[in-house]
Amino acid sequence: MENIFADRIGQLRAMMRSRGWDAVILTGSDPHGSEYPAERWKCVQWLTGFTGEAGDVVVTLDHAGLWTDTRYFIQAVQQLEGTGVELHKMRVPEQVPIDRWLAEKFADENEVYFAVDGICVGQAFISGIKQAVNANGAACHIVSIPDMLDAIWPDRPGISQTPIFTVDPGESRIERLGRLRDFLDAQGADYILLNALDDIAWTLNVRASDIEYNPLVISFLLVGPETADWFVQKGEVEDPVTEATFAELEEDGIFIRYYEETEIALSELDGRVLADTDTLNYHLCSLIGPARLVACPSPVQGWKAVKNELEIAGMRDCHLQDGLAMVKFLHWLDRCMQNERAVSEWDAAVKLGQLRAEIPGYQGDSFETISAYGPSAALPHYITPRTGAPMLEARGLYLCDSGGQYLNGTTDITRTWALGPCTQLEMEDYTLVLRGHIALASAVFPAGTPGCRLDVLSREPLWAYQRNFGHGTGHGVGWFLGVHEGPQDIRQNLNSTGFEAGMVTSDEPGIYREGMHGVRHENLILCTDAGENDFGRWLRFEPLTLCPFDTEPLLADMLTPAERDWLNNYHAQVYAALRPFLDDFDGDWLQQRTRAV
Predict the structure, then answer these.
(1) What pLDDT does 297 receive?
(2) pTM of the entire structure?
(3) pLDDT in tens, 31-68
């Protein structure tokens, strides 16, 4: 039987032949440069079957390739089998990125025509391809076909539309628009276009559920010195919550317009338009034109990364509530193993979701729960099967990476838990990763230090034993926004963004052994002031996440005295914070699990 994805690629090639295209380039994004697109824009998944969060595809008449990074290599090999799509590995020394691959592939051609879905590919990405191909001798023509897959995707979903509501982060939308207008005035431009959905949600203090796990509204926001136009899905279905929100926005001087009017408005606009070309799609960039477009990083990215006092208080509270759910879940898991109860990876994920759903203000998970036992945990972004999921056994390591969206914040936590006896290698890996986590969590560093200079702290304990992991150590986290946000991160890739007090970031080193096990330890950490002296101002991290680490698989003799003190102090903090809200059944278990090592 022919593979359904191979058949779809065949249909795409037939379209290419009929139109004279040499290649089709698809990215795993949407018109807003989102990491997590809505169902309508999961074009890479529909075409190839690859479900990872980061993947771009190039289809030529004789080759189909998927470009993704180290987090998804094992997953990609499994999901691409039989499709005819070849894996191209990124974030490895021998990587050949798409622009270079295309330049080499078509080096002998005089001119080439590459088709792209212009609304789902970034301007910066296309510019890089054109530059590389032209420099290698072929004249590169980009053919922009918005929604090109409509011709072969008959049941393609429509654009999502969910109720829109207002949140109160301690700063009004009028104040935040004022920040944008001050920035606009300083830049000497006439308008600024916000296209990243989290930028828009932060600026307008609005939330919805247009994208799964992300409380975002699919929209564009155009702000001028006196005007603000919000291009948003309005639809025909009356929703009282959305209507009330629209009324509030209009009272604040924000004009509500149809999402489809964005193109016309930008075409007719008179004046210089600031836009972030890292997220601005190629189609809208072409409509604005080079004469009017001023490429500029979005200032909102930096503003929303630094949480205010109300946002920090909300993050503390939702992490306390989330920690209570995690303690109840891990205690339940221990009892299941002790009582030889049959539990699958999916059963465990469902149980944790049920416990979070009991928390006031819970709005859903912040991403799909990774519930992974044994070899499954060797895939950093494992997708837990809903049917036929592997069963948990009373031995080895279980990894659970999960989080919640709450009205007062966002959580993201990973715990690796021993379900029973572990091998020496499992315990070594478990301990080394925890040492890496502690090294970053206990860091003190000069204000403005970028995360790329902190990343080595989490890796050094692993490197000393010649072990490593292929993903970043930390990502920014929003306040009831995206579980991944910038501009700060902690990874080896060069990023000049310096840390400031008020930033929330993850701390999540790991080790992954294909076919065996995976280990990851993750807390969210708040960057706080650590004082000032003759050498400048200093920062440190404070853990927001409140949940014990499993000490059963820990090789305590491998810990330094400082690491042991950190772990004991953290566990004392967890117990003091959570115990007053637990009954004796769960409280006694927590006391045992936070005892000093």
Answers:
(1) 93
(2) 0.92
(3) 999 988 999 999 999 999 998 888 999 999 999 999 99
* Enclosing H/E stretch for 485: strand 485-490
Query: How would you classify residue 265: left for phi > 0, otherwise alpha for psi between -120 and 50, otherwise beta?
Result: alpha
Distance CA 124, CA 90 (A): 18
> Which residue from 148, 147, 130 is spatially nearest to 139, judged by alpha carbons?
130
Given phi > 0 = left and psi -120 to 50 = alpha, else beta, which region is 87? beta
Q: What is the largest CA-CA distance in the chain?
A: 76
Q: Is the pLDDT of residue 73 over 90?
A: no
Q: Can you tell me the distance from the alpha carbon of 466 to that of 468, in angstroms, rounded to the nearest whole number?
A: 7
Place of tokens 């979903």: 157
Tally the residues of the chain.
597
Of 116, 119, 114, 98, give the one whose Cα is nearest residue 30.
119
| Residue of 491, 526, 555 whose CA lies nearest to 69 | 491
Upstream peptide bond of 446 is cis (omega within 30 degrees of 0): no
Residue 331 near residue 323 (C-beta atoms within 8 A):
no
As a whole number of angstroms, the distance between CA 32 and CA 210 comes to 13
Tell me the β-bridge partners of 402.
413
The CA–CA distances, whole Å, from 587 to 325, 331, 338, 573, 582 equal 12, 10, 18, 14, 5
Integer CA distances (angstroms), 321 to 170, 269, 339, in order? 21, 48, 27
Provide the token pair at 28: 């795993």
Q: Retrieve residue 137's tokens.
A: 């001798």
Distance from C-alpha of 430 to C-alpha of 414, rounded to nearest angstrom: 13
Please check the confidence at residue 237 and state whether its pLDDT lies above 70: no
Residues 470, 70 contacting (CB under 8 angstroms): yes
Encode pLDDT of 415-466 as tens digits: 999 999 999 999 999 999 999 999 999 999 999 999 999 999 999 999 999 9
Give the lowest-confidence range in 93-97, 211-215, 512-516. 93-97
Is the pLDDT assigned to residue 317 strictly greater than 60? yes
DSSP-based three-state secondary structure for 27: strand
Structure tokens at 182: 């001050």
Would you say the C-alpha torsion 320, 325, 326, 327 has a positive or negative sign? positive
Q: At what angle do helices 98-105 and 123-135 cross, to 10 degrees?
A: 30
Q: Is the separation of the CB atoms in 143 and 115 below 8 Å? A: yes
Six-digit token string for 536: 């400048």
Among 555, 546, 330, smallest CA distance to 434 is for 555
The residue among 302, 307, 311 whose CA lies nearest residue 495 is 302
Q: How many CB atoms lie within 10 A of CB 449?
A: 14
Kindly give, in sequence order, each residue whose CB lies less than 8 Å from that of residue 14, ignoring residues fewer than 6 positions away: none
SS3 223: strand
Instruction: Classify residue 455 by its DSSP letter.
Output: H
Alpha-carbon distance of 112 to 142, in angstroms, equals 9
Other Cβ atoms within 10 Å of 418 Cβ, number = 21
